[in-house]
Amino acid sequence: MSRQPIKIPPILADTIICSIASIDKTLFVQTDPCPHCEGRAAPYDTKEKTYATLHTEEGVKKITVFVRRFRCHWCGVLLYANEPFYPSTRLGSAVVDMATALSLVNSFSHTAAIINAMGIDIDRGSVRKYALSDLPVPNITFFYGLPLPISLFSLIGWAVGRKSSPATTETELLAASGFPSAYRAPLDEAEISRKRLEQRKKQKQNG
User: Fold this and answer.
1) What is the pLDDT of residue 169?
2) Measuring CA to CA, which residue among 180, 187, 114 is closest to residue 146?
3) What is the pLDDT of residue 196?
4) Are 55 and 196 in contact (CB under 8 A)?
5) 77-120 tens-digit pLDDT
6) Which of 12, 45, 106, 140 has minimal Cβ neighbours within 10 Å of its Cβ?
7) Angle at which helices 10-21 and 93-102 pack, to 10 degrees?
8) Cβ(56)–Cβ(119) under 8 Å?
């Protein structure tokens, strides 16, 4: 028996797609002192990173950002500017937050299918990886019956504000995203896993 196609309200899908697309080609250049020795970081190069892959009426569009890299003068370690990615993830934080939030009440496969139906590329394996990782569980609100992360609505607000004020800064975008690259997981991974499972059960019961 074939599954019914997932229907996402067009206004929701279009708003999310446009908000993510507005990040395209943003340059991130702000960094903190070296976390290893607190030495001064000097510019090294700039790396282009894929934030998301979107499927639009015009075709497939890769949303990329440019992230400045730095070399510590003292210890020589390579550092990245503050960026809209969680540590050790390949997709932008908005997509990761959506995957984590939706997986609280859906299977990993169904979560991937919902995000795909919005026009955003992600597979079941990536959803499972993020949902079971030590990444933070975002605060959520139900919208059109879907548990969506508050950070997504902050990003939408940033994108709307950018239309009226194009001179918005990378700091404002990072703030809307919750400064994801600054996230550091607590040391007790067992406690994280336990709380995450409890939250998944609670959301499914409430849903």
Assistant:
1) 80
2) 114
3) 60
4) no
5) 999 999 999 999 999 999 999 999 999 999 999 999 999 999 99
6) 45
7) 150
8) yes
Q: How far apart are CA 198 and CA 207, in angstroms?
A: 14
Burial degree of 14 (CB within 10 A; 0-12, 13-18, 19+) = middle
Give the residue carrying structure tokens 């709380």.
195
Contact 7, 117 (CB under 8 A): yes
CB half-sphere exposure, 108, CA atoms < 13 A:
10
Alpha-carbon gap, residue 53 to 61, rounded angstroms: 6
For residue 150 the two structure tokens come to: 């508050």
Statement: the pTM of the whole predicted model exceeds 0.90: no
Cβ burial 154-178 (10 Å sphere, 16+ → b, else e): bbbebbeebeeeeebebeebbebbb
pLDDT at residue 1, rounded to an integer: 42
Is residue 55 exposed (0-12), middle (13-18) or buried (19+ Cβ within 10 Å)?
middle
Taking the C-alpha atoms of residue 26 and residue 6, their distance in angstroms, rounded to an integer, is 32
Q: Which two tokens stand for residue 189?
A: 């991974």
How far is the CA of 19 from the CAs of 3, 68, 115, 163, in angstroms? 29, 23, 15, 11
Tokens 């890299």: give the residue. Answer: 69
- 168, pLDDT greater than 80: no
CB atoms within 10 A of CB 79: 19
